[in-house]
Specification:
The protein is mainly alpha-helical. 85% of the residues lie in helices and 0% in strands. Helix 1 crosses helix 4. The chain is elongated.
């Protein structure tokens, strides 16, 4: 299951760099959960032909990620934004408990909102 999610993420990021057939086969297999036989029947080729095309496309996706690291970097940024939102919550809670500054509360709410907007993109 983890490999399926990994391939789906790589396909989202690098899918446009594959041929249309490679993209379609990976999409059918990983996102639409079609079997190799079902894809072969729909495309009019052999099951082995589908398997070979999928394996070549997977290799290309992993090579692109190895060279560019965009998916890894995206996950790091996402994790960082989640941490920023958590720290903003902590700052806000501390400030409310100690009745320190309305501005600090407003800024921490804004920080959390911006991080959430970026996470939702």
């Amino acid at each position: 299951m983890a490999k399926n999610l990994e391939i789906a993420g790589l396909l989202d990021c690098y899918g446009e760099m594959l041929t249309q057939k490679q993209h379609d086969f990976l999409d059918y297999y990983y996102n639409e959960d079609l079997s190799l036989s079902e894809i072969a029947a729909n495309e009019g080729i052999t099951r082995q032909g589908v398997r070979d095309a999928i394996k070549r496309a997977e290799t290309q996706l992993f090579e692109m990620e190895s060279k560019l690291g965009l998916v890894r970097r995206f996950e790091e940024i996402k994790q960082g934004l989640n941490e920023i939102a958590e720290y903003a919550d902590l700052i806000n809670a501390y400030n409310l408990r100690h009745s320190l500054s309305r501005e600090v509360n407003e800024y921490s709410v804004k920080i959390k909102a911006v991080s959430q907007i970026l996470l939702d993109k």
